[in-house]
DNA sequence: GAAAAGAGTTGCATATTGTCCAACGAATAG
DNA sequence: CTATTCGTTGGACAATATGCAACTCTTTTC
């Protein structure tokens, strides 16, 4: 089953190489892609919706929709007609412009009901871990700081004191750095204070350096600071309004010096970005 | 111009007379409707989306989608494939089921942004939250009950399981009480039934008490019933004919006993009233 | 434990259906 | 008034969706 599902999900990423201004020769469509047979008209229809998504409040002209979706005016008109018939798109009586309609809202509400950040982030992390053949964890903010809520074994046998429920240090874990990066001081200050009272002290300068770096790179790393012999790379999962919802971490042994290669990092990051998008983040 | 637009808009309401269980003979399609030439595949595609809209939250089987949309399995599969290719629909790797995907959320949010009430209410709420230095949310009625459509961080750092897309309980949230107060039983009854089946039971007497109170006061409150440690005050945003269009909620920590002082409550209420007036409410 | 039923997926021939071109009416500009 | 642009529509042709049947994999049944 997994094989079937995998092959089918992999056939996904055909990009629209036609940007906006040129009309599509039909040859291109039949030539380049689509190893699996599907309904072209539907995919074109979605292009039309995409064109309607970022348009002024008072609606888009047919002309613009046609351009953005790479269709002729007559073609675009017919697609819009079908969407109007079904209520997905509305045509304003006043100015004749087109805009997403009531049914689009209904679709969105139905889709929203399925949004479950933790589950989605967990799924994405799990598939990355399987691919990279290693182990990782998912965290969210808990009462005492970043808290491990999922621990996913993916091939790398690790024996650590970490488990579901563990609270990670803000100052000494890659996960913690992400919370420092994305959350307000009011939230993190008391936790830091308590960590320092317990003897874990990292200088403000050093923290600031790591925060800046995390913000620039889009991820954070540590080597052996939480569990000796274990290094980690953590990426943020963001929600609407750039709110930090969770973090995904991928672990490895510190011996494997160059475990976190560019392509691997990209894989991890894109998993987090995909999860973020799925829960409403507009990057 | 108006004549043209009118004729074209009038050609809209062709109903789907095929309910759900029968497969459509192609003859019927070409025979009965569609005086204006459009893209059949798109309208069929929307039928598939409609089938996905009212399905269990963990996705629908291909079989059920096919039935509900009146297509054969192979046909339904191809439509779903196209939607999966475009991100409108997602296929769960685990169980192979289909459900509305990330792009559907984007479409819905784009459509929502064009809805005047939502925009106005969101703006008003945002300015109140900034003034009160706290966090709040906007809800509208969705497929499974009151649904969070905006989450506005305004100073109070809160980490909860709540997010854009969360469905709030009717019986246990201040938002829910408002829907019970202003909406018909026909709308709310099935949701309440499902909540009670899931174990969330508040007695009818207690609900009635809260409803009466909400109607008198013009707002509703709860303390820690949705998210432990978090209390909320919600006010209704009404449209023409006293229809409940949305709700605005302001959050605070339960520790801050007297957060909701008279003047603060008045600020929140007047923001909601202003929004209501702006969208046609005649108070 | 093997067979049967059910689910999801795919190939292929056919004709239904979308595409392109051109044209029309209406509005706006020059 | 003429010229241009825009939304819309008709018709011939060819691309494309359809329906059937088969295949794989899973689940159920006996």
TrEMBL record, chains A, B:
Record's keyword terms, sorted: DNA-binding, Transcription, Transcription regulation
Molecular functions (GO terms): DNA binding; DNA-binding transcription factor activity
Domain (IclR-ED) ranges: 103-281
Region (Disordered): 1-36
HTH iclR-type domain location: 39-102
GO terms under biological process: negative regulation of DNA-templated transcription
Domain of life: Bacteria
Biased composition (Basic and acidic residues): 12-26
Pfam families the record matches: HTH_IclR, IclR_C
Compositionally biased intervals (Polar residues): 1-10
Gene3D superfamilies linked: 3.30.450.40, Winged helix-like DNA-binding domain superfamily/Winged helix DNA-binding domain
PANTHER family: HELIX-TURN-HELIX TRANSCRIPTIONAL REGULATOR, ICLR FAMILY, TRANSCRIPTIONAL REGULATORY PROTEIN
Protein name: IclR family transcriptional regulator
Organism: Croceicoccus pelagius
Source species taxonomy: Bacteria, Pseudomonadati, Pseudomonadota, Alphaproteobacteria, Sphingomonadales
């Amino acid at each position: 089953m997994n094989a079937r599902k995998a092959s089918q999900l992999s056939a996904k990423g055909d990009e629209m190489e036609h940007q906006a201004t040129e009309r599509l020769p039909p040859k291109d469509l039949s030539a380049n892609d689509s190893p699996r047979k599907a309904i072209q008209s539907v995919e074109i229809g979605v292009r039309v919706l995409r064109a309607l998504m970022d348009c002024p409040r008072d609606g888009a002209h047919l002309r613009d929709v046609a351009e953005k979706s790479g269709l002729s005016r007559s073609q675009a008109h017919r697609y819009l007609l079908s969407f109007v018939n079904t209520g997905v798109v509305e045509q304003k009586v006043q100015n004749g412009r087109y805009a997403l309609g009531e049914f689009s809202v209904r679709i969105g509400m139905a889709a929203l009901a399925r949004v479950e950040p933790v589950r989605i982030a967990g799924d994405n992390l799990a598939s990355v871990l399987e691919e990279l053949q290693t182990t990782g964890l998912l965290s969210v903010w808990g009462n005492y700081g970043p808290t491990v809520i999922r621990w996913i074994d993916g091939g790398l046998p690790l024996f650590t004191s970490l488990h579901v429920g563990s609270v990670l240090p803000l100052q000494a874990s890659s996960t913690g750095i992400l919370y420092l990066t994305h959350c307000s001081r009011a939230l993190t200050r008391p936790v830091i204070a308590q960590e320092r009272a317990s003897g874990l002290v990292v200088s403000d300068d050093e923290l600031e350096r790591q925060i800046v770096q995390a913000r620039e790179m889009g991820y954070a790393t540590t080597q052996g600071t939480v569990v000796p012999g274990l290094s980690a790379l953590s990426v943020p999962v963001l929600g609407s309004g750039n709110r930090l919802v969770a973090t995904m971490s991928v672990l490895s042994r510190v011996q494997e010096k160059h475990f976190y290669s560019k392509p691997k990092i990209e894989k991890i990051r894109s998993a987090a970005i995909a999860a973020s998008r799925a829960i409403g983040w507009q990057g």
